Amino acid sequence: MKLCYNQATTLENSNLETDLELCEKHGYDYIEIRTMDKLPEYLETHSIEDLASYFEKNHIKPLAMNALVFFNNRTDGEHKENVKEFKDMLEKAKHINAPYIVAVPLVTEEKILKEDIKKSAISVLQEFSELAEPYGIKIAVEFVGHPQCTINTFGQAYEIVEAVGKDNVGLVLDCFHFHAMGSKMQDLQKADGDKIFILHIDDTENFPIGFLTDEDRVWPGHGAIDLQGIISTAVERGFDGAVSVELFRPEYYKLSPDEAIQTAKDTSLEVLNQIHVKN
Known about the structure:
This protein is of the alpha/beta class. The protein has a single domain, classed as Divalent-metal-dependent TIM barrel enzymes (TIM Barrel).
């Protein structure tokens, strides 16, 4: 199993160029590129060809463009903008050979019926699937474990992906999000591991379900999440993709990028080695 680095872990204390250099130094296999901030910042002084060249010359490779946010239950105008952004992400992903684009569901204060959420999500993902198919790129839907996210449990997200019925549409299984809204292990135990494209490894302080926020994340193995149960079950169900460490801890942003990236790797491997998952 390969280890990936998600740029959120050094969101406030690094940039793409530095993250790439340090991930290469510390032996990561992949990186998830933040398309809403880190990639545009990089492209102010570099070209997409520069980025493609870096990946060609080094061990580390791009795993995903992260992310197209709030893809479902949008107005017609908002949807058109999302389609435009998605097409641009497809072109950039193709250029650097990134196999996945992460898609994040709508987070809103508005109450939306679950059947309307499902209907919208299926329609949009089927449209995106057709757009992505000629590129050979897959869409990884990341449910968000927050009460105000329209798709916030593994079971709900898996049901939608199953209904989409496309080989290039699957899930991001984020351990924090799985834990944060009380996703059911029974749902994961029944899932097809091939539908889990990316696994995010992270941990959290022990707050009640529904109160957790991204800032509560801690190094893998340093918190309350049953990482052994979640990851080992995913592997038993057939998941064999990359494990990506993704944290948003404010105090970790005070560390040097080098220390943060090294610690993220060390703590992730410690957890994975305990559950006999080979990197």
